[in-house]
Design the sequence.
């Protein structure tokens, strides 16, 4: 496979592993947080941790859109299906996310609710066109990568005068979340959670560029390397982070130059700015309320805003007792620190959101890395 | 099949006609459907007896029986359709015991309004698949459900077969030291189905690998009667099937990703869709677990067979109290290859 195999070569991986071994200072540790679930997935799928020295540790961040969506928003979506009788369209992973009362969208669907898995916003628009007498709501989630297609969908809906389509916006923003993690007491207080550097998101950065990370690299004195999602990208970026740390630098560097520029995709940015605006505050699973960390539909497009159309209330989120997803999402705990992990919480029966998506840290630990934890119970 | 043998004044309209409730009512319309569609195409001596059961002599020795329901969407796909799949799927389930499949039965659940032309196409395809495999469909059943209560057509087939003396193939017989062989590239069927689904159509040259594997199995057991396990990695793909076998045999498995054959087009499609080819279904491939010496004997035989050209040894059975399937990745790292959780592709067979 062209443009992919090149970034998965065993020989180059070994060379990079040697370079990393030569670079690390055995007297210190390197805790590197990959923000994105895509990186988490690559690290586990290709066994990248095996190629790292023992004092280089990956900390899995909150960059899995399914994982950070608070339970209350899923409850809202379920309410739309059950009480408002809408056709709810969303991406596949979201169907299995546990809601309150051991419910989930997939269970609602099984009970006769009209929940449909779509591959793109265009599918949702088609469903609205084909069902003019039904209200169709697209449950939109994701970081800056999935936001432009949502913006396009609303523009199209307006252009066509589609009266039965609206969007339940749960789009969130990466830089605000990274800043929140760095400001959290666990990270600030010495000796609690150490995060020495960040792998910057790849696809998100293709949209927003590398510039938004410059502020907190400087402010919090942590290096950021924008990294591609292939395993060699991750290793090369780890080397770049380790070099910066050894040299006492804290800059934004770009490993993913084949896609990411400093300014990003300005056309996509304009598109998003036309349809969405910042929310004052939004609840993240694991991080709590994070100021200016999410988007909502602009007043100009409010007739396509499901929150306006259906008067969706803010529902308080209630976590499953014992679930450590919040701490795991902040990098404060590892999946294996959770009492539920592998006991009652597995990918087949997820209790917490980190176990749902393959990008979630718990699912990745369970699916790819269990052999590291001989004490973990087998399924 | 309960067919009346007198001709019907008006032929069944297999061009414009549609299935209606009378076709499942047990009356004359059903008799005509059986006569002019099922019997016409699936004709054989046992079916023609027109009894509610097929009657035949049984061979001495051990027999096996298997059943498989087919609900695939879409019904027609590159490389096959629900009809050929229903024949191949059950023949393969029987053959994975080392048995020679002898007879099939077929039960149809038809949805009111289903075009008779499509039904005829499916039955013709079943007939071809059965006659190519040399395994006749000797008894059957038809039911019709109201519109909205089915999805066109569901087909359940049952197969029986005779196990040659001295063969003892079972999922619980893998032992540490055994070799794991696959008979060809992984994921062709699942990716083909995905590519032809509504909403997701993308152009690809891949076709389903749907095929009856019993002639390959026959040659394999002839050279290596001591084969420990055979299984076809259908739903859940290679990864899930190996996990089943590891559990059943209470062993672990160690794979080498570099040895697992995957067609470049399948790998690309999976990359694009975020799927892992190891979890994607196959309908014409088998996994064989046997001792090292048998593996060396089997490989040339399998590769010489038209359905085993790309056969490869992909790993070995190891001792592991957790019964994990592990894999050395192409990248040089190691990881667990877990059971499939959730679903990768809805209704693939």
Sequence:
């Amino acid at each position: 496979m062209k443009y992919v195999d090149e970034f998965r070569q065993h020989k180059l991986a070994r060379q990079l592993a040697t370079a990393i071994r030569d670079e690390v200072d055995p007297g210190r540790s390197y805790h590197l947080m990959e923000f994105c679930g895509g990186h988490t997935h690559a690290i586990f799928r290709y066994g990248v941790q095996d190629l790292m020295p023992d004092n280089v540790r990956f900390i899995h961040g909150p960059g899995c859109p399914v994982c950070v969506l608070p339970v209350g928003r899923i409850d809202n979506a379920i309410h739309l299906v059950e009480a408002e009788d809408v056709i709810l369209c969303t991406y596949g992973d979201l169907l299995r996310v546990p809601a309150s009362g051991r419910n989930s969208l997939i269970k609602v669907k099984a009970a006769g609710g009209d929940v449909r898995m779509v591959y793109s916003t265009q599918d949702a628009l088609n469903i609205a066109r084909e069902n003019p007498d039904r209200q169709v709501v697209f449950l939109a989630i994701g970081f800056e990568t999935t936001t432009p297609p949502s913006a396009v969908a609303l523009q199209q809906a307006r252009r066509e005068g589609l009266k039965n389509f609206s969007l339940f916006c749960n789009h969130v923003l990466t830089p605000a979340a990274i800043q929140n993690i760095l400001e959290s007491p666990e990270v600030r207080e010495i000796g609690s959670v150490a995060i020495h550097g960040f792998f910057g998101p790849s696809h998100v950065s293709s949209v927003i560029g590398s510039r938004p990370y410059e502020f907190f690299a400087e402010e919090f004195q942590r290096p950021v390397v924008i990294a591609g999602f292939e395993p060699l990208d991750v290793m090369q970026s780890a080397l770049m982070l380790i070099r910066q740390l050894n040299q006492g630098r804290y800059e934004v560097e770009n490993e993913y130059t084949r896609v990411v520029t400093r300014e990003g995709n300005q056309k996509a940015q304009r598109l998003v700015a036309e349809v969405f605006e910042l929310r004052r505050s939004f609840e993240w699973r694991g991080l709590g309320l994070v100021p200016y960390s999410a988007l909502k539909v602009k007043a100009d497009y409010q007739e396509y805003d499901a929150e306006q159309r259906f008067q969706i209330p803010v529902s308080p989120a209630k976590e499953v007792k014992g679930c450590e997803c919040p701490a795991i999402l902040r990098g404060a705990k590892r999946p294996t620190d959770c009492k539920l992990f592998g006991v009652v919480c597995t990918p087949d029966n997820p209790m917490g959101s980190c176990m749902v998506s393959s990008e979630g840290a718990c699912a990745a630990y369970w699916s790819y890395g269990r052999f590291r934890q001989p004490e973990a119970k087998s399924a | 099949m309960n067919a009346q043998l007198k001709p019907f004044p008006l032929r069944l309209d297999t061009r414009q006609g549609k299935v209606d409730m009378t076709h499942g009512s047990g009356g004359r319309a059903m008799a005509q459907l059986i006569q002019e569609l099922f019997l016409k195409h699936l004709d054989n001596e046992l079916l023609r007896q027109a009894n509610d059961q097929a009657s035949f002599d049984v061979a001495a020795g051990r027999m096996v029986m298997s059943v498989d329901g087919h609900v695939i969407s879409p019904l027609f796909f590159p490389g096959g359709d629900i009809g050929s799949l229903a024949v191949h799927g059950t023949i393969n389930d029987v053959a994975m015991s080392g048995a020679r499949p002898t007879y099939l039965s077929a039960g149809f659940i038809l949805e009111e309004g289903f075009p008779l032309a499509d039904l005829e196409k499916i039955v013709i395809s079943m007939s071809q698949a059965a006659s190519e495999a040399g395994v006749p469909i000797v008894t059957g059943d038809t039911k019709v459900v109201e519109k909205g209560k089915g999805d066109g057509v569901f087909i359940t087939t049952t197969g029986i077969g005779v196990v040659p003396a001295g063969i003892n193939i079972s999922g619980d017989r893998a032992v540490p030291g055994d070799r794991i062989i696959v008979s060809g590239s992984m994921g062709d069927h699942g990716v083909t189905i995905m590519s032809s689904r509504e909403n997701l159509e993308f152009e690809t040259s891949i076709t389903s690998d749907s095929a009856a594997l019993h002639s390959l199995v026959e040659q394999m057991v002839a050279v290596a009667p001591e084969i420990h396990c055979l299984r076809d990695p259908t739903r859940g793909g290679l990864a899930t099937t190996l996990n089943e076998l590891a559990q059943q045999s209470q062993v672990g498995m160690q794979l080498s990703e570099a040895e697992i054959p995957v067609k470049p087009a399948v790998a690309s499609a999976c990359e694009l869709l975020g799927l892992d080819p190891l979890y994607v279904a196959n309908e014409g491939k088998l996994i064989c677990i046997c001792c090292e010496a048998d593996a060396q004997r089997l490989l040339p035989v399998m590769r010489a067979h038209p359905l085993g050209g790309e056969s490869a040894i992909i790993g070995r059975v190891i001792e592991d109290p957790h019964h994990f399937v592990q894999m050395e990745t192409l990248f040089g790292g190691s990881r667990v290859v877990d059971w499939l959780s959730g679903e990768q592709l809805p209704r693939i067979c």
User: Anything to note?
Assistant: The two ends of chain B are 25 Å apart (CA to CA). Residues 179-336 of chain B form a domain with the Phosphoribosyl-aminoimidazole Synthetase; Chain A, domain 2 fold (CATH 3.90.650.10).
